[in-house]
Amino acid sequence: MTTADISTRESRPSSDHFVDLAGTQWPLYKIEALAVGFVLFVVAGAVTQSMQVAVLTAATAAVITWWARRVYYSRTT
Questions:
Q1: How far apart are the C-alpha atoms of 61 and 56, rounded to whole Å?
Q2: Contacts of 44 (CB under 8 A, 6+ apart)
Q3: Dihedral (Cα; 36, 30, 59, 39), 10-degree rounding
Q4: Could you read off the pLDDT tens digit of each residue along the chain, which spans 77 residues?
């Protein structure tokens, strides 16, 4: 016989790691990753004058920041 284990306790994320944007709570790690990606896009674009390098650098930095900060915030809650 198979049974379903249903948890009645709700997990509420702490509001310390969220920012309210237009009535929607965004996790702080997403905003940090977007900011890092944008800054590196502008800097890499200005330094190299190459869109390919700027986009790939910004995307790589944004993904690494996104995952690293997500893991960090999940451990601090």
A1: 9
A2: 53, 54, 57, 58
A3: -20
A4: 566 666 555 555 556 788 888 888 888 889 999 999 999 999 999 999 999 999 999 999 999 999 999 998 888 86
Residues 11 and 31: their CA atoms lie apart, in Å, by 22
List the one residue out of 29, 61, 58 whose CA is nearest residue 42: 58
